[in-house]
Design a protein that fits this description.
It is built from 1 helix and 28 strands. With 350 residues, it is mainly β. A hairpin with a 2-residue loop joins strand 3 and strand 4. The two termini are 35 Å apart.
């Protein structure tokens, strides 16, 4: 009799799971959420897997959280902008802003401002050159900064609006060109563009990018609600997969062979690379509305996403005015406005 009840119970669980009511044990889910009241717009989040910290610029400051305990650590004042990149050797961090802010990661204090031209947006530490790369929506497309002293080491003109970039660690940089629906291939030795891969009609507005460096595969996360899977060697489109609405960040985890894309509609799409020629959407994780950018903790395989929630307003009160020091692209809304409210830091894993 007990075995019959057990069979019926398992069948019921299977049925519920098929209807999306029960989450499988090995599915991604929101493990924890940290909230911090404040004001100002946000854009990117950076997980420093080595030093175990999370950086989120908001308004004119950058908030720092512990990547393990998820607790708020402190604030780097007068360092704001779109995103942050860290050089672990020099213990120097940089913000994508104009001017660029340089800070000490150990004391969490500003060192100086670095004058740059263009319109800074994305940012990353590039291991082949050992430089901080500032990605701009205007010429010069890429500005290289020496993380040791903060000097400008050169610029590369790509053309178009640069969004997210990924390095293969061997001298090639791949960059989303958002307004051209292309991925630019940059030779970091020659400091010039080699070619641009056209993503076609389905690849409109690439905002996030993942790279499987081992198998030479790119995952372009596009505003057309598609992930364009591309051969990094020749630009051939290998697959087109659906993602959520409003992506502005993505990546690839070689430990799990999964690409991921965070979306403004409150979803995080997980794409499984089953083989170098076979890909599928494995899961759409429910996060929070506005969580459109993300970063990967490579040690724990946890994806960090961020968004803001407005504080409740009294009936009849005028809407809060976005902060003037908020990232320009975030004054349009989508859960990222500059008014007072919670900053939400979500940790997604298994």
């Amino acid at each position: 009799m007990k075995s019959i009840f057990r069979i019926l119970s398992l069948a019921g669980i299977s049925l519920l799971a098929g209807n999306g009511l029960v989450q499988a044990a090995d599915d991604y889910k929101v493990l924890d959420t940290t909230q911090l009241m404040g004001s100002g717009g946000i854009d990117y989040v950076t997980a420093d897997s080595e030093a175990r910290r999370v950086y989120v610029p908001r308004g004119g400051n950058t908030f720092v959280f512990d990547l393990d305990s998820h607790k708020y650590i402190g604030t780097i004042t007068n360092i704001g902008g779109h995103g942050v990149a860290i050089d672990t050797k020099s213990h120097h961090g940089f913000s994508s802003s104009s001017p660029v802010g340089m800070f000490d990661t150990e004391t969490m204090t500003k060192i100086k401002s670095v004058e740059v031209t263009g319109r800074p947006d994305g940012i990353l530490f590039e291991p082949f050159t050992g430089k901080i790369l500032i990605l701009s929506h205007q010429s010069p497309s890429i500005t290289l900064i020496d993380p040791k002293d903060g000097t400008v080491a050169g610029t590369i003109d790509v053309g178009g609006a640069m969004e997210q970039a990924q390095s293969d660690g061997a001298g090639k940089l791949y960059v989303d060109v958002e307004d051209e629906n292309k991925i630019a291939v940059v030779d970091l030795k020659a400091m010039k563009v080699v070619t641009k891969y056209d993503l076609g009609d389905k690849g409109e507005g690439p905002g996030g990018l993942g790279l499987d460096a081992k198998n030479h595969i790119l995952f372009a996360m596009c505003h057309s609600q598609n992930c364009m899977v591309v051969n990094a060697d020749d630009g051939k489109i290998l697959a087109t997969l659906p993602i959520g609405n409003g992506t502005d960040g993505g990546g690839f985890n070689p430990a799990t062979m999964e690409a991921f894309s965070s979306q403004r509609d409150g979803t995080l799409t997980i794409i499984k690379e089953k083989s170098p020629t076979e890909f599928e959407v494995a899961q759409n994780v429910k996060t929070k509305t506005g969580c459109k950018t993300c970063s990967l903790d490579t040690k724990k395989n946890v994806i960090v996403v961020v968004c803001t929630e407005r504080a409740p307003q009294a009936p009849g009160a005028a809407p809060a005015t976005p902060a003037t020091n908020a990232p320009a692209g975030e004054r349009r809304g989508g859960g990222q406005r500059g008014g007072p409210g919670n900053l939400d830091v979500l940790f997604v894993g298994k």
